[in-house]
Structures are given as C-alpha cells and as structure tokens.
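ERR on first pass: missing label on line 2. Operator R.T. fixed the label and resubmitted. Corrected input:
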Amino acid sequence: MTESPSSTARVALVAEDDRDIRELVTAKLTSAGFEVIAVSDGNAALAMARERSPDVALLDVMMPGLSGLELVTMLRSDSRTSSIPVILLTAKSQEFDVEAGLAHGAADYVVKPFSPRELVQRVNAVLSQAGM
Amino acid sequence: MTYRDRTLGSERVGLLARRDSVTGRLRRLVWSMLLLLLLVGVAGLVEVDIATGQVGKLTRGYTPASESHAAALTEMLNAETAVRGYVNVPQRTFLAPYQDSKDAVLVSLDSTVRSLNSVGEHKEDALLATERTRAKDWLDSYATPIAAGPGGPASVTPKEQQEGKRLFDAYRQAYEVATTAIESRRAALHNQANRLRGMAIPILAITVVLAILLAAWLAYRTASGISRPLGKLWAVVRRIDEGDLTAQADEQAGPSEVKALAKAVNALGTRARAEAVVERDAEQFRQRTRLISATLRRTTNGAQMTDHLVRGLGQAFEADRVWLHTFADERVPRLTAQWTRDHLTPLPDAQDRHVEAARMLADRLWEGAHVVTIDDHRTYQPSAGGQVPFKIAQNAGVRASIVVPIGDSRGAFGLLWVAMTDHPRHWTVTEAGVAQHLAADLAHSLVQSHVIERQAQAVQVLRELDQAKADFISTVSHELRTPLTSISGYLEMLQDGDAGDLPADAARMLTIVDRNATRLRNLIEDLLTQSRIDAGRLRLEVSRVDLGKTLGAVHSAMRPLASSAAVDLELDLTPGADLTIIADQHQLEQVFTNLVSNAIKFTASGGRVRMMADRDADDDGVLVQVTDTGIGIPEAEFGKLFTRFFRASNAAASAVPGTGLGLAIVGEIVQRHGGAVDVESEVDKGSTFTVWLPTGDAGAGAN
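pass 2 clean. output:
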C-alpha cells in the first residue's frame, strides 16, 4: 500500500443516480486517494465493472436500469467481476432486505443519509478484508 | 292428495239379523241350551212316568186286588166253617156266617176284578171268573139243603157233603191258581218298578252329562268363532298402533260384526296411510323450505340468495314459474331472478312499466301486510288500482299465483311471484305462510348482506386510503433522505476541512446548519418509523449491541445541540458494567436520540441533561436514565405521554416545537424489545425517563 496514488491508485466504481450524492462520494473518495469511476445507472456500472475491474464498487440500491441487488448478483456470477467487493448504498434501512443483499454477495451496506467520513472508513475496511 | 271418506254406518244396517253375527251365534247357543235342557227334562219326566206307572199299577190294581182276593178266601172259609158246623149241628144259627159270607165272597171277587180292571191290560180275568164260578158252585150246592130249612129233613146228606167238599176243593184250586197269578204278577210289577228306579238315576245322569258336553262344545264353538277373528283383528290394530300402517285385517273371517270391524279398521288404516303420506309430503315441504332458509343464510351474495330462493321455492311448491324482483332501493341491491319448470321458456326481462306496476303492487301488499293467493286468475277480481300486474301475469299465461311483497320495517323493496301456468291450483295456508316466511328471510338476509357489503367497501376504501397515506409518508421520507445525504455529507466535508480551512464565522454558521440538518434527519426518522409502525412494517434487526457505544454515539451527536442550547450534556456510564444486549441498534439509537433531544429541548439554558446506564439490580437487563432539569411534565399527563401526537400542555404553552411523535416511538420500540419506560417528573424541576431493556441472549453470545 505504498504505491503513489497516481500510478497505482485503487479504483472505486460508484453507481448512483442522484448527481449530487454521486459527486459527494466521488469527491470524498478522490480526496481519500481513490481513482473513482462514477456512473449514473446499473447497466453502465455493469459495463464499467467488466471493462475496468475496479477494486471496490459502491452501488445504489435504487437505480434506473439494473438495481444494486441485481448488479451484485450479476457481478458475482461473472468470473471477471466476482472478486470485486461491493458496498450497497440504500435509502431504505428497513424495507431493504439487508440479509438478502449480503446473501447476494455484498460486503457491506450504508444507509442514507450517511457520513462521507464513515463511508471511506467502510470502504477501507472492506478492502483490507479483501486483502488489498 | 285425495282419499275416499268411507262411511261405516251402512255396514251396521241389518247386522243383528245376520245368521253369522255374534248375536245370532249367541242366540243359537242359547236356543240350543234351552233345547238341551228341555230334552233332559223330558227324558227325566218319561223315566219318572214309566216308574210311577208301574207303581200305580201296583197301588191301584194288584195290591187291592190281592187284598180283596184274600178277603174273598176268608169269607169262603168262614162260610165253609159255618156249613160244616150246620152239618154237624143243624141249627139255623150256625148258618148265619154262611148267609153273611155268601154275598161277601162274590162282592170281594167282583172288587178284585174291578181293581184289576182299573190297571188296564191284565190276564187274570179268566182265572178269577173260573174262581167265581167255582165259589158260586160251592155256595149254590148248599143253598137247596139249607133252604129246606131247619126242622126239616133236609139235613145235608153225606152225598151232598161229599159233593160240597169236592166243589170246595175245586174252588180252592181255582183260588190257588188265581192268587198265584195275581201274586206273581204283583211281584213282577214290584220288581219292574224297582228295576226302573234303579235305571232312572244313571240314565238321567248320562243324559245330563251328555247335555253338558254338548252345551260346552256349542259354547266353545261360538266363543272361538267370535274370539279368534277378534284376536286377529286386535293384533292388526296393535300393529297399526305401533306404526305399521301396512297391516291389513281379514275382512272375510269371523262373524259379521268382526268383518265390519275389520273393514272399519282397514278403512282407518287406509286413511292413516293417506294421512301419513300427506304428513310426509308436508314434512318434505317443510324440510325443503328450511333448506332454502339455511342456504339463504350461507351466502352473503344477493344474486346467489335470490337464485337459491326462486329455485328452491319452485321445486318445493312444484310451481311452473317463480319470479323475484327487487326495486331500486338503498337498502338492497337491485336484483332479478326467475326460475321456470324445465319445459317452459323463461320470461323475457321485465319492462320498466312492469317493474313499476310490480313496485306499486308490492307497496300496496306491504301496507296491508298480506300475501295474495290466487287459485284461478280467470275468476279472480283484483281490487281497483291493482289490476295491472295481474293482467300482465294473465297475459303471460299464469292461471294461479302466490304474490308476496319483500321488505323490512321501512317498507317493501321487492316482489316475489310464484305461478302456475295452464291449470288453476288451490294454495294452502301453509304454502302461503311458507312463501311469506321465506320472503321475510330473504329480505332480512338481503338487507344484512347489503349493509355488510357496503361496510366492507367502506372499510376497503379506508384501508386503501390508510395504505396510500402510509406509502406517501414512507416515500416522502425516503425522498427527503436523498437531498439530506448531500446536505449533511458536504457539510461534514466542509467541517472536516476537505475544502480547506474555513473562516471562524463560516465555521460557526456551518455548526448551525449541521444542528438543523441533524434535527431534520431525526424528524424524518421519526416520521418514517411512525409510518412503519402504522403499517405494521417495523421489524427488529437484532444483533449484539453495546449500549455504552450507542449512548456514546448519541452523546456526541447531541452535543452540538446541547451546546447551542447552553445545556450541559453528561454521559455517565458505570465503569466496568457490561451493557451488551440483543437489540436493534439503529432503533435504540433513535430511542435515546429522541429522549436526549427532548431533554435538551425542554431544558432552559444553564440546565443540565444527564445520561446514565447500568446493569439492573436483578442482572437481567440494562437501565438507561435520561434526567433533565427542564420544565417537567404535569403528573396528570403521564398516562398520555406515549400516545402519538400528544404534547404536554406546558410544552405547547411554552411554544416548544415538536411533532408529538418522539415519545410514542420510544414507547413502541422499547415495548418491542420487551422493555419498559418509566417517567418521573415534577413541573419546573425536571424529568427523568428510565428505560429498562432486557439483556436478551447477549450472555449466550449471539451475533
């Protein structure tokens, strides 16, 4: 973990349809040293995940196109993307079936409104769990 | 059901004259008995007569004859003694007995003959005549010498003496013969009388015995001739009485009265069978109508009810058509139902004017509270103003009808019409009653099901509205969270210095923004939680929760609020106490956030809010206390504190803002955790909220 951010920066894929939240997350992760790929819908996220093989993916549960849950399932079933740890962003703490999300293979979840500081901590925790 | 009413009276006519009647038989028995008695009597009499005849002969004839015969002998001996004396001593005085006896002998003999003559048939006359001749010969032989008289020479010569002796001997011989005959005859008669007397008793006894036997046999014949068929008849009556209506009496056996009784019993049996059939039909009818009532109650669907009713009625009444209509009315749905017998074509839908006419008829019948039964439309005269429906019915081929209005206490709302086509029909009172009863049942069921249906619809509408409201609140809350995420996120970044150091004024302003963002977030959380509770969707996501950490998080989150209100916020955890429980961490955070924010809100600047936590004395839960030095709560309102939208009177009066949701949520969540909330408060002194939460399985080390 001593590589300079520019050359070997960890890549985070952010899929979030709300532009302001997407930019918030992007800004925070960038300032935390991540290279951020930000997309606004599920299909784009799937394409990017396959193309760029990010180190971590932050997926909004409620998105146009594929939902976060569907995305997790698809990423898990594809060998190219199956090892990417996923953190789900959800506005629904109750209705969102946390168990289902985690069972689908999500590593963690964050309920909106969340603290950006805490989000970064969770991302780092997930990455260290995944051995990166 | 028709049956002939048999008249039994005619059977009785001439019954007494019948030969094979009971009376006839008894009469014959009595006559036979009398005849037997007569025969026995006559036989006895004959026997007595025979016996007395013999005795009579003895007493009337032979006994006097025997006596006079003996007297004659005595006279003869007297005369002979006198004669012998005279012969020896011819003195006239010796002849006196001879003179006396001479006539007496003949008189006695004649008396003997008379006595025998009185007996009737006898054989001794000739003997007696001979004896008389001999006696007279002897008597006469001495007449001449004796007549010569005394003194004369006419003494009896020895020759004459010899002759006299011979004649006397002849007499004695004749006498002996006669007396032997008489005595033997007398003895014979005597024996005969004795024999007859000896025979009469057994003969009479035998006759009596025979007569008794004959009488007994006749009595037995007569009795059995009457009692046997009567016994059989009795058995039949018993069987009928025990319910065997098929029992038949033999109408050909026994005396005529028994035959007549048998016929009567059979007639009664036939009638009982007919009545049983009628009763069974009536019971089936009642059963069917009960079934219809039961079916009506089983459904809440009006159309099904009316269909059941018309079909059931049609079948039970064996009608040709049943038509039912409910009119436009708020009490019941508008329904039309009809049933027709198989071969009939259903009626076309009623036209509006028909329905209108039916409605008027129903109203009129309802007012009169009666059912119209029409046995034959061709002879029926409807009252003025009510002809139209009957005319319509008649045009549709109806010959007989039962028309029943359907309604409740507020009037008619329908009409039921049971009709026969082609033939008139007599409707019984039962049928009319049943039709009315079923119409009432239907009315009741229809009204009730309509009410229930409308209530169900109203409930459904309310439920949908409630759901829409819950969904709306939920959606709004979610939608509020999205902008709040950006607001509080960027706020945090600004405060963290992600955009570089901020001027002191800007930092202070951002603190205010942060405080209100927090408040807003708490409000949204409360709204969302409440909507979940209302929708029954609040679930516990339990895990191992360290209440110390949770309280710490709440403490730090609330500190900006406390400091801005110039309230001292303390967290006082008992050192070393294990505050781990099984609970929903997120929900408990909300509970303590609400309690602490309330405490801060109601505490004036310079006051103090203290959070304390410890294991409870029983060591099966954790006690958390939030104490403030605020305005307090009137004791009377403690009970309502945890009711949603309730706000303490002094809170409202002090214009302290709030939704009235906070404590309601606290109460709900704590209750769901199996815990309890307690409140102590004194107005103007402060309040203490104590939350007790069970440890759950924390000790067992759940996740």
